[in-house]
Amino acid sequence: MxxxxxxxxxxxxxxxxxxxxDAPGRLDPRVPVYLQSWDAxxxxxxxxxxxxxxxxxxxxxIEQTVIAENGGVILADETVSYQGDSERAQAAASVFExxxxxxxxxGFDDVNKWRETxxxxxxxxxxELLREVAAEFDxxxxxxxxAYHLKTPGVEKGDGLKAVCETLELDPDSFVAIGDSENxxxxxxxxxxSYAVGNAxxxxxxxxxxxxxxxxxxxxxxxxxxxxxSETS
Length: 233
Ligand SMILES: O=C(O)COP(=O)(O)O
Ligand SMILES: [Mg+2]
Fold this sequence. Notes:
CATH architecture of the largest domain: 3-Layer(aba) Sandwich
Number of helices: 8
CATH topology of the largest domain: Rossmann fold
CATH class of the largest domain: Alpha Beta
Bound molecules: 2-phosphoglycolic acid, magnesium ion
Number of strands: 11
Shape: globular
Number of domains: 2
Radius of gyration: 17 Å
Distance between the termini: 26 Å
Strand order of the largest sheet: 5-4-3-2-1-9-10-11
């Protein structure tokens, strides 16, 4: 198993949308090059449902260590765990729709089809109505810049990172975190060092140790380049 003593570069906890992608959410073509050669554990921590980051790890050929659904689903060392009240989120989503709200994903809702602990709603939705219904169900709404997530309060990526670290016997403080939005604030609080890419929202910018000049993967790559050059210099 990887131990800190072997470290040449730090472990990474990386958000996906807005951090490894461009604005519309397309994976940056440099991601395989950077991640496949990174010589330390990588945790993908995303608001996407579980199959997306698992598939991304699979196709990158890296270890499947994943925090999905904003901390709702965690995979580390081949063990999956779940947090959050999915039935309550489902019930709230139904009420939201009954009152005229729309999830907004079209005929084939691949955003929620495999979602197990929360519900995601398109940013075109009626935010006021969504927040009103969420409050009635004691749920919270977070805005990642890619979707609204109707979720159980207190289920966050940062706790997912703590759980992953316990399973893998890693020190959260050894991690470098990179992200772009409100749902990365908890990760930034747990990791030893945190970076908000240039496109990050206000919450992520406030929470990060450093705001990067460059946006999207240009920002992420700038941190990885900097770490690698300081390790080799
Ligand atoms: O699914 C979203 O809404 C955002 O995903 P992310 O956490 O990877 O940025
Ligand atoms: Mg993001």
